[in-house]
Write a structure and sequence with these properties.
The chain is α/β, with parallel strands linked by helices. The chain has ten helices and 16 strands. 25% of the residues lie in helices and 19% in strands. Helix 1 crosses helix 3 and helix 6 packs across helix 7.
């Protein structure tokens, strides 16, 4: 059992000096491998922390630093943190422990982490990396770092960011999205259009056998007609919720609200996290394949370019029995949190098909990953997993990226957490992170 080293706070540059004054290193327990050591880093205030992984014997990969975070996850032990550390990179997982999980709360700690890595002798480039909800976080950060607060407080936003603390953020040299969510759209796609005044509208109920749901297996087989009605009603309810929340926000801001700063907002029929009324969960034919050919990382080691088909099965069977559960199929939020995290406009052609998502105004929410991707110009990589339901959404992120140097690859048989959904898919985590390693090391990229 090896005790972790303490951080060296030697002043390397004037920049490093200003950062180092706020940092301390403490033992955090033994690491699981002899290839790297860990150092605790204070990133500014009491709520912002980092855990730095460094190779015991730095090799060529140590010249690239990686910053990773998640708006409500532990980046200290996240799979991307440890997997990239095993491959010899310097990686710092950033955690914000404040009350807010809004992406804006992460701007300063991520910026300080980028600066900290750059202060380490031997680090030549810094890349930002996000998995799942961390993907929309790092996409937002990169856009703001490149363009400033105007990228998230324009008139096209339903609710603009206030811009506080968002000027002069440290700019990463590249970005990696790992099975990323799309920000506010993830919440939109969970809205149940069958909910109305405490009752359920039978014609819109995706959990009804009459509409194609099998109560025994949890599998859905939905007709084109039902899907058309479902998505039209989901879009209408989404826009109504936004209008209601904006009206309450106006009341709050003019002193006519229930409270002076915010109000509780319980939304019946809007799922939280993976829960919700999404046709593509019980029926994998929705969002089931890519629109264009892309690289598929196959278990046999080949990497063909093809239309990529999802290999996932039906999921979310438990949600049919949790329709009345708070914080599962019903969101317990506030007016400001809803508008900041979950509100994104849809238009009349909103729908999710086998290979497309239409009718979403990606620029209307500052958390929307495709909208932020339009402002990202640094080299960018998207890796997404074929045994999960984010394939199509990640293809959309890739399509919106402004980067001239951009790559997308699909990990065959990988679940959201990079485990294989069947044994024959092999070591899906190794395959994905080896690919990231190779991408980072392409001659001339970094």
């Amino acid at each position: 059992m090896r005790i972790m080293k303490f951080a060296s706070l030697v002043v390397l540059t004037a920049l490093a000096s200003s950062i180092a004054a706020q940092q301390r290193a403490i033992p955090v327990g033994p690491v699981s491998t002899a290839t790297y050591s860990t150092t605790y880093v204070r990133l500014g205030g009491n709520n912002d922390e980092g855990l730095l992984y460094e190779p015991v014997t730095p090799g060529p990969n140590a010249r690239i630093g990686i910053v990773t975070s998640h708006p409500n996850g532990d980046a200290f032990t996240a799979i991307q943190t440890t997997e990239m550390a095993k491959r010899g990179y310097r990686v710092i997982g950033v955690v914000h422990r404040g009350e807010s999980s809004d992406v804006t709360a992460f701007a300063q700690p991520i910026s300080k982490a980028v600066e900290y890595l750059r202060s380490i002798k031997g680090v030549e480039r810094v890349v930002i990396m996000g998995h799942s909800g961390g993907g929309h976080l790092v996409g937002w950060y990169q856009n703001i770092a490149e363009h400033g607060p105007s990228a998230c407080n324009g008139p096209e936003k339903i609710v603009p960011c206030d811009g506080k603390g968002l000027s002069g953020l440290a700019k990463p040299d590249g970005i990696v999205f790992l099975d990323s969510t799309t920000g506010a759209f993830h919440q939109l796609s969970s809205i149940d259009p069958a909910v109305e005044n405490g009752t359920r509208i039978a014609a819109l109920d995706m959990f009804s056998p009459a509409n194609g749901y099998d109560l025994k297996t949890g599998k859905g087989t939905y007709s084109a007609d039902f899907a058309k009605r479902f998505y039209a009603a989901q879009s209408a309810r989404n826009n109504t919720l936004i209008d209601q929340a904006r009206a309450r926000l106006k009341a709050i801001e003019t002193g006519k609200g229930e409270f002076t700063d915010d109000e509780p907002m319980v939304i019946k029929g809007m799922g939280e996290n993976a829960a919700g009324a999404r046709l593509y969960q019980p029926d994998p034919t929705f969002a089931g394949r890519t629109k264009q050919p892309h690289t598929l990382l196959k278990a046999d080691g080949t990497q063909p370019t093809q239309i990529v088909e999802s290999v996932r099965g039906p999921v979310g069977q438990q949600f049919a029995a949790q329709l009345n559960a708070l914080a599962v199929m019903n969101s317990n939020t506030t007016v400001r949190q809803f508008l900041s995290h979950s509100a994104i406009r849809t238009t009349g052609d909103y729908a999710i098909s086998a290979d497309s998502i239409t009718g979403v105004d990606w620029k209307s929410s500052y958390t929307a990953t495709p909208g932020n991707a339009e402002g990202i110009t640094v080299p960018a990589l998207v890796v997404t997993n074929t045994c999960h339901y984010l394939m199509l959404q990640d293809e959309i992120i890739y399509d919106h990226l402004a980067s001239k140097d951009k790559t997308i690859a699909f990990d065959e048989g990988a679940t959201h957490m990079f485990t294989p959904c069947k044994p024959e898919y092999g070591d899906t985590a190794k395959r994905a992170f080896d690919y990231v390693d190779g991408w980072l090391n392409k001659p001339g990229r970094f």
